[in-house]
C-alpha cells in the first residue's frame, strides 16, 4: 500500500529520488512504473543504492528490473 515502502534512490552516490513511494507513484500495488535518469556517469560499473526512509513500514526497498542505455556522444 502507498506509504509503506518509502525509500531514497541514489545512482553513483548521487541522490536521484528522495522519499520515493513506489506504490503511490505507480497508482497501487502490482503496477508498472518507469523512471528515467539521464547524465549518469558510469565507467565499468553502476552503483544503485536503495535506502529505506525512517518512516518506511516495510524496510526492504524493491527494484524489479533495470535497463541501462549508453547516451549517444
Task: List the topology elements.
Layout: E1 6-11, E2 14-21, H1 22-26, E3 48-52
Antiparallel strand pairs: 1-2, 1-3
Question: What would you note in describing this structure?
Answer:
The protein is mainly β. The chain is 7% helix and 26% strand. The chain has 1 helix and 3 strands; from the N terminus they run E-E-H-E. It has one helix at residues 22-26; strands at 6-11, 14-21, 48-52. A 3-stranded antiparallel beta sheet has the order 2-1-3. The termini are far apart.
Highlighted features:
single chain, 73 residues, mainly beta, globular
Summarize, please:
Helices cover 7% and strands 26% of the residues. It contains one helix and three strands. The protein has a three-stranded antiparallel sheet.
Give me the secondary-structure category: mainly beta
Strand content: 25-35%
How far is the first residue's CA from the last residue's CA? 41 Å
Q: State the helical fraction.
A: under 10%
Which ranges are low-confidence, i.e. pLDDT below 50, for 5 or more consecutive residues? none
Largest sheet: 3 strands, antiparallel
**Average pLDDT level:** 93
Q: Which shape, going by the Cα principal axes?
A: globular
* SSE order: EEHE
Specify the number of helices.
1
Radius of gyration: 13 Å
Identify the strand order in the major beta sheet.
Answer: 2-1-3
